[in-house]
Amino acid sequence: MSGLCWLSVLWMFGIRLISCEITCRNEEGDPVDWFVVYKLPKNLINETYGPGLDYFYLDSKSQGWQVSKFFINMTQGAMAHVLQQLYQSYNRNDTAYMLYNDSPPGINSSFAQKGHCKGALFFDKYQGFWLIHSIPHFPPFPENGFGYPETGRFYGQIAMCVTYKYEQYEQIAAQLLYYNPNVYNCSIPDIYQKDLWGLYRICQGSGFPWVEATRLALLESAQGESFLNFAKSKYFHDDIFTAWMAQKMQTHLLTETWRPTGIEVPSNCSLPWHVYTIKRIKLLANSFYSLHDHSKWCVSRWTTNMWTCIGDLNRYPQELWRSGGFVCSQNEIIYKAFRNIVAYFSDCEKDNFH
């Protein structure tokens, strides 16, 4: 079976089997269906500056947030474990990968004409992972190995990894055509050209075909969990949360996105399903203002639908034309983890505490 091998390793007093499938990996380096990482900002309420490297971790085998015993820049953490697979095998002709970021490594400016999106894909003919995140200048080029940028310390950041079977990458490729990502490093060998012509064209820098304003795709993880992917192109000139996501999912959304100027984007109750602005977050004993968070996510206000979405776009007027998207789940564990960290948010008339 392509992409599958097993290594027997002496581990303590027994034998440990290590899967060589390309997959998301947990804090121990073992395969998981999905994981979420939430890095704390340096500026925490009622505390002096922290290192800006502490993070919380959640995956398909856990029941809630766990405080990682590692810093996010350490090679023992989940982010390093998943990316090391790419760094160790990126030059093989039977694997494909793509690294994209509108603020790529080694460049201070942003590619504003491209999608406001950041991520990494790595897969073979069997399966692989799609890692989406909010971290500028990350991850490093494969030949440089794993590292974390100093610029990524100050603000809060988020990342989500999902493992997908190969058959799902045709849908992912179609979604990324709408994202219009700024690809700074990639390899899509010829064996993938027929199935994944969209990724091949993105990697080659070829002209894209005409796309509509939006595209919605239902993705299925390797373990059969459903994820809904909202992708908007540059032709959709509106707030993705208010004009599309909340109305499509039929849920009031609490939103957390970065505000570059510090000016609060007001909540919007003009449509049947409302969108509210989160103002403060509390992860266990760690509390911080939304102003210091560069993450982009939303969660249903009520438990009726239990949607949680993680992705790329800000509720910021000057960025409404940017392309990008969100990966959404109705997983109860993910929902409770995110809903419970909303300390308070701005309703259309007043502040609401959790």
From TrEMBL:
Pfam families per record: DNase_II (PF03265)
Molecular functions (GO terms): deoxyribonuclease II activity
InterPro entries the record matches: DNase_II (IPR004947)
Tagged with keyword Membrane: no
Enzyme class (EC, first level): hydrolase
Its EC number(s): 3.1.22.1
Keyword Signal assigned: yes
TM regions (residue ranges): none
Coiled coil: none
Keywords: Hydrolase, Signal
Catalysis: reaction(s): Endonucleolytic cleavage to nucleoside 3'-phosphates and 3'-phosphooligonucleotide end-products
GO biological process, one term: apoptotic DNA fragmentation
Residues annotated as signal peptide: 1-20
Family of the protein in this entry: Belongs to the DNase II family.
PANTHER family the UniProt entry points to: DEOXYRIBONUCLEASE II, DEOXYRIBONUCLEASE-2-BETA
Name the UniProt record assigns to this protein: deoxyribonuclease II
